[in-house]
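Now read this:
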Amino acid sequence: MTIATVWFLWHVRQENIADFTPFKPLMYAGFGALGLGTCVFLKDFLAVRGLALVLMLLAKLVLDAQRWHPSEWRWVLSVWAYAWIVAGIWFTVSPWRCRDIIEWKTATDARVKLGCALRLALGVLVAVLGATVFRAGG
């Protein structure tokens, strides 16, 4: 939650929309207090809520980076980022679902192996795309 709060405050500080300029110090203080207050007063599933926020901030980072790439392979990253956004929204609204998903995914050895294989395949695909299609100047 702390990582997500600091990262979001950095984004607020970097924002240069003129309409928000007079309110920027108030927004910065308010969002900082909200992040701190969440850590103090909302202790149930705090790690899952923090994960949800980090997923959404990671999605913003990926979408900003892939937006200008000319290759059609950028849609792989785009779909992955939007999956993070949906997961982040879902875990923010109902954080206990993360526990249920983890419990379901680890119920049998076959599910664990299948999940690992799928994540490994996605990781290899993204690594290959990074080494070939997305490299600098590509």
